[in-house]
Amino acid sequence: MVDLTRKRERDRLAVRREPYWHRLNKGMALGFRRGPDSWVVRLTATDGKRSKTYHALDDSHLDFDNAKERAEQWLEQVTGSATRKFKRHTVRAALETYIADLRRRDRGQAASDAEWRFKKYVYGDKLADLALEHATRDDFEEWRERQRPGRENRTVNRQVRTVRAGLNRAAELGHVGNPLAWTLRPLSDDTEDSNDTAVFLSPVQRATLIGAADPSTADFMRGIELSGARPHELARALVSDFDGISIKLAHRKGRPPKLRVRYTTLGEDGAEFFARMADGKPRCAPLFKPERLKADNDWNPDEPDARIWTTHLWGRRVRAAVDRLNSSVKDGSEKLPEEASAYSFRHSRISELLQVHSIDPVTVAQQTGTSVVMIEKTYFKFIPSAMRAKLASIKDSMI
C-alpha cells in the first residue's frame, strides 16, 4: 500500500506509466505518476461494465493536500459535489431529475414543456429504459431515426436538443453518463417550411377550427391566417411591431442562427384585426397573449413564459380543439386532418396568396420570410401555370 500523503514516500516510488492511486471517495481517486511527477484525477463508474474518466492537474509541484483540493474543485464542477456519489439510473430517471430541477428553480413553464416532449417522444420508446451510463451514441441515433417518419428534420432536431439539455443537466447533478453519447450532429435543415408533411386547411376548415378553440387560441390562429407568419414569430410580436399597415416579424435561421427581420404587409382585414389586438395595450406588451384555462394545472403566472405563447402551449390547445371537433363528427369526410396544427394556417395562407390572389412567388417569399426554392418545393401545385412558365424562363436565362 502506497502512502501518497508523504513526499518522502512519493519520491521513493518507481517510475512507471500507471499512476499510484489514493482513494478519495467511492468511484473517485487521486493518482500520482513518477518521472516526471504529475497528478491525475480518476472517476470510475461500475454497474455491469466499467467507465472511467481522467483529468490531469496542470501543476506538477503540488503537495498532496493542494492536489486533493484541486481534484475536489474539478469533481465539484463535474458532479455538482466533490463528495457526491454517482447516481446510476435510466434515461427516463435522468430526464425526470431534470424536470424536477427546473421546477425547483421556479421554471414551471419550461418544465411543463420539457415534460410534454419527453412523454411524447422518449418515455414510450425503448431508449427510456436504458441505463444512462450504458447508453451509446448508436442508441441515441437509432432513437432519433425512430422519430423521423412524418416529421421535418428541424422538428426532430428540436426534440434532440431538449433531451440533450435534460441529460447534460442530469449529469451535472450526479447521474452517470457519457455526454458524447447524446451529442448528435443536427440533421440537415433542408425543409424550411414543409413539403410532404404540410397540412392545408380550407377556409371552412379553418373557420371551424377557430370556432372550436378558446378565445385567445382562436385569436392566435386568426393572426397566423391573416399574416402568414410562423407561430413562433407571431408569439413574440409586440404591439410596437404593428404600425397599422404592416407587422414586423423576426426569425432565426442558419447555423449559427442569425436573426432576420422582415415587414409583412397586411390586407385590409388583417390590419383591422391586428388593430383590435393592439387596442388598449402598452407598446411593450405582446400582441397575442395566452389566457389561462381551467385545464392549465401547470400554469405559473409569475413565470415570464406564462405571458407569451410557447410551442408547448399553442400545440396542446390546437391539438385539443382538433380532437374535440373530430370526436363530435360522425361523418369521417368532415373530420379535420389529424396532423392539423397552428402551422397549417401559415401553409394555407401561402397557398391562397399563390392560387387565389395570383401573387407571384417572389413577392410571396419576401412577405412570408421564405425562399422561392421553398415556395416551388412545397407549394408548386398552387402556382398558376403562367407563373410556372415565367419562373422556368428566369431559371433558363440564369444558366
How would you portray this structure in words?
The structure is a single chain. The chain has 399 residues and is α+β, with helices and mostly antiparallel strands. Helix 4 crosses helix 6 (153-172). Strand 5 (246-253) and strand 6 form a beta hairpin. It contains 15 helices and six strands. The protein has three domains: 7-79, Double Stranded RNA Binding Domain (2-Layer Sandwich), CATH 3.30.160; 91-172; 203-398, Intergrase catalytic core (hpI Integrase, Chain A), CATH 1.10.443.10. Strands 1-2-3-4 form a four-stranded antiparallel β-sheet, with helices on one face. It has a two-stranded antiparallel sheet with strand order 5-6. The longest helix has 20 residues, at 153-172.
What's the helix count?
Answer: 15
Give the class-level CATH name of the largest domain: Mainly Alpha
Major sheet: arrangement of strands: 1-2-3-4
- Report the biggest beta sheet as strand number plus sense, adding barrel if it closes: 4 strands, antiparallel
Protein structure class: alpha+beta
Which stretches are low in confidence, meaning pLDDT under 50 for 5 or more residues running? Answer: 190-196, 394-399
Total strand segments? 6
Task: Report the end-to-end length measured between terminal Cα atoms.
Answer: 78 Å
What is the share of helical residues?
40-55%
Total individual domains? 3
The CATH level-2 architecture of the largest domain is identified as Orthogonal Bundle
| Shape assignment | elongated
Mean pLDDT: 81
Radius of gyration: 28 Å
Strand content of the residues, in percent? Answer: 5-15%
CATH superfamily membership of the largest domain, which one?
A: Intergrase catalytic core
At the fold tier of CATH, the topology name of the largest domain is: hpI Integrase, Chain A
Order of SSEs = HEEEEHHHHHHHHEEHHHHHH
